[in-house]
Amino acid sequence: DAGVTQSPTHLIKTRGQHVTLRCSPISGHKSVSWYQQVLGQGPQFIFQYYEKEERGRGNFPDRFSARQFPNYSSELNVNALLLGDSALYLCASSTGTGANTGELFFGEGSRLTVL
Amino acid sequence: GNSVTQMEGPVTLSEEAFLTINCTYTATGYPSLFWYVQYPGEGLQLLLKATKADDKGSNKGFEATYRKETTSFHLEKGSVQVSDSAVYFCALRSGGSYIPTFGRGTSLIVHP
Fold first, then answer.
1. Measured between alpha carbons, how far is A45 from B4 in angstroms, rounded to an integer?
2. Handedness of CA A104, A105, A108, A109 (dihedral sign)
3. What is the mean pLDDT of the segment spanning B55-79?
């Protein structure tokens, strides 16, 4: 079975541009979470979506947004990119949400470099 | 709030050496504790977990014991292999929150 897949794997943008990252969860998983992992740090929670609804949001500015589609895949959008947005963006899928989130399965990530 | 503190890396060992990576935490309520591993170029994988005090999580020769009295969850392995080279993250989930709090990660380098 395919695991969590993310695209693109690497990308380079310049300040002020916009980026869209994509994630396909494990088949049967209805929840997708997004994390930002800056070099040398642990992952920081950005969003969780379940059944196409936002169920949680971390401490990130409004430049960050996301959505989930009927097939449970998800997009993370970041507008007006800053140098500090350079990071590995991880997607994780799980079966449930809230206290029933269960085990998180992570993709390999999308590495964003902002110049 | 919740926080996780891990020992600074990198940890450099020879093959078959004993490994300890320290992890301490602060949390509200009664957290569940986790160790994740990130191999080069890959995403995080759950290595082991423990959900209550004195539980021992184990997997692939790694183990960690949930110590409530010392708020610790140290990762150990008796004999490391070159293939164990990776970054190891300690994490917790607490108070019914589904959002894990991660430590900064500890890089392990094992030489033949």
1. 14
2. negative
3. 97
Q: Is the pLDDT of residue A99 over 90?
A: no
DSSP 8-class letter at A20: E
Q: What is the pLDDT of residue A96?
A: 77
Contact assignment for B102 to A42 by CB distance below 8 Å: yes
**Can you list the positions of beta strands (E) in chain B?**
3-6, 11-14, 19-21, 23-26, 32-38, 44-50, 56-59, 62-65, 75-77, 86-93, 101-102, 106-111
Residues of B in contact with A92 (CB under 8 A): 44
The residue in chain B having the minimum alpha-carbon distance to the alpha carbon of residue A9 is B41
Contact A108 B42 (CB under 8 A): yes
Burial label, B39 (beta-carbon count in 10 A; 0-12, 13-18, 19+)? middle
What is the tens place of the pLDDT at every residue in A50-62?
888 998 899 999 9
Q: Which of residues 17-56 of B touch A (CB under 8 A)?
A: 41-46
